[in-house]
Amino acid sequence: MENTLVEATDVKKDFYTGKITVNALRGLDLNVHKGDFLSIVGPSGSGKTTLLNLIGALDVATSGEVKVFGKDLSSLSRRKRADLRLKSLGFVFQAYNLVPVLTALENVEFVLELQGVGKERRERAQAVLEDLSLGELGDRRPNELSGGQQQRVAVARAVASRPRLVLADEPTANLDSENAKTLLEMMRYLRDEHDMTFVFSTHDPLVVSYASRVVTLRDGRVVSDEQKNSIAEDDEATVH
Amino acid sequence: MATSSTLRIAWRNLGRNRRRTFLALGAIAVGQLAFLATAALLHGYAEKYFDSATGPLVGHIQVHAPEWRDDRSIDLTIQDIHHTADEIRKDPNVAHVSPRIFAPVLAALTEDGFMGMVVGINPALESHKSGLLGDETLSGKIGDRCILVGRVFAQKYDMEPGMQLAVIGQDVDGSIANDLFTITDILSSPVAVVNNLGIVMSLHDAQELLLMSDQAHEIVIHVDDGDLLDETVLRLSSSPLLAGMEVLPWQKIVPHIVSMIKFMDIYLFIILFIVFLAAAAGIANTMLMSTFERTHEFGMLLSLGCGPGRLSRMIAVEAVILGLLGVAIGTVLGLGFFLLTSETGINYAALGGDKSTYEMAYKGLQISSFVFPKLYVRDVVFAVCAVLLTSFISVIWPTLHIARLAPMEAMRS
Ligand SMILES: Nc1ncnc2c1ncn2[C@@H]1O[C@H](COP(=O)(O)OP(=O)(O)OP(=O)(O)O)[C@@H](O)[C@H]1O
Ligand SMILES: [Mg+2]
């Protein structure tokens, strides 16, 4: 279906560490639809990161099926999966998202270069930063940026190639609530204005309050999946 | 291909840990300097040895009667010497042809005799850079029983121009030969035997003294193109005129010099190998450390979908920049050394605190404390290639490390 970006069916994921087997996901079902602003919550160890890694083609399921944009990921080679990540997905990690020796602008430019964008990548990178009100930070290196600014640049980089789906693992974990808010508003702006779909894991109630849908995991299964009107959705607040 | 970002990242990463980068650069630069300095000195020596080997005494090619080199027996001669020399001179690669006579004799100024060596030459044919006389100045002073004596020889027995020297020897028939000669000048020769014992006279005078008619013991040949030596030797030895004679290139006459020059090449190769190792250690260490330090960064880039090949290229570009920079600094230092010393030469004796230079002769080879360093472009090219190769070799390990990285594992570190 066109509007279903992710279809995970009866997904199991086991980790083998020495003699112990950890069943991180134990038969999980989840569909992600276009336009979702989806927050995955659950206690530590419930499998949030594991799930995001599977959807993000960073890892493969032990059993079950994970389809992204209609493609079964287990049928893709390592290289094809890397290609999918590069061209169709956006990633924001918890921290240290940026190449330390490159400026903010160069970081955005670099992924565009990896994606094979030609000469116009500098302008495009600049445009993305400006679109997200980060134009002034362009020539700063990551160590000259605050944690919140770094995460915003990371989002800018993740969305520079206009991916349909952006995955973020605890993007606000290292941010105070002010910075977290700015980041969330930025992401929601991208969802609203650029038709992007966001899936993020979090422990942060603030993030949950922004979500349009909350999926709760426990012991590697979905225990609840609720559609909601986020409190912040009615606010006038935008990044602009 | 190194794209702009790859270059940028590689370059800036070198600046990330400056001290480490400088240390690596220093190791490579010092290695390169050591190599170039050694190469320059060894080439200087090799050239000197080569010049002295192929110079006035030995020449490029020699012709003698087959046994003469071993026996030095006075009757082992080359016949018809004028005609033979003229014929040899017709060979396209032959530059100089010098027939010579050597005969040990007893010499005397007064009643006391001493050992000497008659060296019979054609002064006109020896008045060039690689001839026994060196230049024209002395050539007119030989002939009609006028002779030159070697410098050391003259000093030892108090001989001076104007004196009469009696020479007593054995002629080709085995009977006593003797005659009286006038010393016209003292000859400073680069050839030890001439300097120490030489009684240098015209070929004609020597032939008369020794009853040799149109004969000589040796023909020394200098060629135009040293690379065509073997062909020239082949041509000459197959000529009917020299049938039964021994025609030898200088390598066969002074094989110890050939092996000495060969040894220098081996020595140079060993030095290059050490430079290799120093450079490899410097670069490999730097690259390994910077790769392991950046494991998290690499994990992040791999997660974004960056290929491991791309990361390896980043590392390789970094290593190559490091290697080239180091080798460039080393080359500048090496050229500096070369420019400082190539004009004035280096005096080893002075390095030991001694103001004088020394010259020794060993088996026809001039050994001196003085050397003029010589540097060839190929040395620099050679070292640059070696260091480049080293750079590539030293990123093999980091590359393997990157290829094995799982993005998520790497992110966690
Ligand atoms: N690479 C791994 N090797 C072994 N076990 C793993 C690995 N990754 C995850 N696990 C285990 O799988 C389970 C799920 O981990 P996961 O990281 O998905 O949890 P999470 O919900 O993201 O937790 P948190 O909220 O603390 O980030 C945990 O028990 C964890 O120990
Ligand atoms: Mg997690």
Describe the structure concisely for a colleague.
Helix content of chain A is 32%, strand content 28%. Chain A is an alpha/beta fold and 240 residues long.
Features:
heterodimer; A: 240 residues; alpha/beta; Rossmann fold; six-stranded mixed sheet; 7 helices; 28% strand; disordered C terminus; B: 413 residues; alpha+beta; 2 domains; six-stranded mixed beta barrel; two-stranded antiparallel sheet; 16 helices; binds adenosine-5'-triphosphate; binds magnesium ion
Low-pLDDT residue spans of chain B: none
Strand residue percentage of chain A: 25-35%
What is the percent of helical residues of chain A?
25-40%
In N-to-C order, the SSE pattern of chain A is EEEHEEHEHHHEHEHEE
Strand order in the sheet with the most strands of chain A: 6-7-8-3-9-10
Bound ligands, each once: adenosine-5'-triphosphate, magnesium ion
DSSP E strands of chain A, number: 10
Radius of gyration of chain A: 18 Å
Q: Tell me about the largest β-sheet of chain B.
A: 6 strands, mixed, barrel
What gross morphology of chain A would you assign?
globular
Oligomer type: heterodimer
Domain count of chain A, please report it.
1
**Biggest beta-sheet profile of chain A:** 6 strands, mixed
- The top-level CATH class of chain A is Alpha Beta
Total of domains of chain B: 2
- CATH T-level fold name of chain A: Rossmann fold
**Average pLDDT for all residues of chain B:** 85
Major β-sheet strand ordering of chain B: 2-3-7-4-6-5
Task: State the distance separating the first and last CA atoms of chain B.
Answer: 29 Å
The chain-level structural class of chain B is alpha+beta
For the record, the CATH architecture of chain A stands as: 3-Layer(aba) Sandwich
